[in-house]
Write the structure tokens for this entry.
Amino acid sequence: MNLVEIAGLLLFVMLLLLSCGVWIAMTLAIVGWVGLAFFSSTPPGPNLFTAFWGSNASWTLAALPMFIWMGEILFRTRLSEEMFDGLSPWLNKLPGRLMHVNILGCGIFGSVSGSSAATCATISKVALPELVKRGYDEKTALGSLATAGTLGILIPPSITMVVYAVAADASIIRIFLAGFIPGLILMALFSGYIVVWALVNPEKTPPADAPLSFLQKIRASGNLIPCALLIAFIVWVLIAGLATATECAAYGVLGSLAIAWWSGSLTWENFLGSLMGATRVSCMIMFILAGASFLSLAMAFTGIPRALAEWVASLALSPYMLIAALAGFYIVLGMALDGISMIVLTSAIVLPMIQQAGFDLIWFGVFIVLLVEIAEVTPPVGFNLFVLQNMTGHDSNYIARAAIPFFFMLVIAIAIITVFPRTVTWLPDLVMNK
Amino acid sequence: MPLRRFLDHLYDAAGYLAAFFVFAIFAVMIGQTAMREVGLPTGGTDDLVAWFTAASAFLAMAHTLKHGDFVRVTLVLQQLSPRRRRALELVSLAVGSVFVGYLAYWSASFVHESWSLGEMAGGLLVIPIWIPQMSFVVGATLLFVALIDEFVLVARGNLPTYTAAVDARHRAGDFSEDL
């Protein structure tokens, strides 16, 4: 059998197992085992142990349970109510008015949360009923919440980025910093779309709330203080050199516990619930990472990634064509898979290809995170769609249709970072003095 | 049914132990930065954190499976009639059990070897490496037991525990564990 046939066979086994409903982590490892046992002279057993132990017993990976726990704690506080009350008085002059709370709220919450579904659920929990009560267009509200919720994984911290950094062996802090400006660009695109939409459909925006005096506005914004303090605290810990990027995750937990305690939501039940939830979610991710690391190891033994990278190089695609092809590939993949699986499933194959073509791994990380964001809002499997489906009772396909204009904003953001890669690399280069 | 209760308690106990290790990561990291600030030596804490991370992941596996948090593609499963769905569920449970049994076997044989050879950890914290690696053996074995347990449940005509758990959670509007 030549390498192409082997690759095809392994792909077939993977798709077969996945469609039978075999858990993704196990599928990855089983495919790796098939590759090693039949197409290399390396014994699979000891390598299986080494890959699983080596990928989980990792100091860098310790940031993962910490960031997840932080999100779980904040989800159980009153942070989302406070966000709505603090932001809404300032938005009455802007076309689209309170609709922008969705974007700003998700952006700000995204900078303390590393998960897209958690951001979407937290902000929607409060913003959606408030907007509908005031007579805002529900469809646009749903679309903007579904899509803006994905800012949670683009604006640091981000669980998806930690997973990518581990898979690509890249610096977590660099990729966190790299997500910042694209996050702001994306927020501007979302808000820009809402402004245009509101100007074209003036009848769909209800009248403004009674205006508050400037002082009242300031007082209302006092609600944003806990969240702002938490962001400032984490940045300070990092800049002051008190903690590394991994350790600053633990300080995020400390700050979140402080917020929960301050707002009175730190009950024993909430504490234990958040800790157990974080344990399960990080266990799930680490199991996938372990399976993927064994698969990568097995792939390297078979020589498939190198052959594939060389084949792609021999096509002499222009960088833009390669990126466009990959974007199309990931959008299709994202219809059926969740973001984490998407990254770890493809990293063994795609990353060597990308490096061969001369792309920066940090830049590619942000690119792939944007595609994961698209995956979260494309049916049939899109997690933010499921979140809103359960919160509103609307069918997930209806929500996906509502998200279409915002979906195109994501595509535009991808085009922007591709044409102007400095938007991604400028900030990490500046901060890391390179 | 005492066996049922015993097994559920076993998975949960390991899950709580895993959660304790998540908390321990937090405590050690904060302690480590504090000690560094006052100039105390922090050698070995990085190894400790790495082992805790592994323990938190491995020990929680059975509990996480039962809770329905392991990701899988359910597109095909959802299209099928209940009878066919059950058949396919049994196929994937059988495949999973065989694989995890293999994983548990290799973890046990590898760790047994490092125990009999008296292998030590290579970092700053020099202890026998089998001690932290035991979390792998215990976690993989428990996951194996949990998969067999589910296989028997489904074969007897019950709904898988993990499916029921996810449905109940989503009906209650709890998405905190979806990414």
Q: What stands out?
A: DSSP finds 23 helices and no strands in chain A.
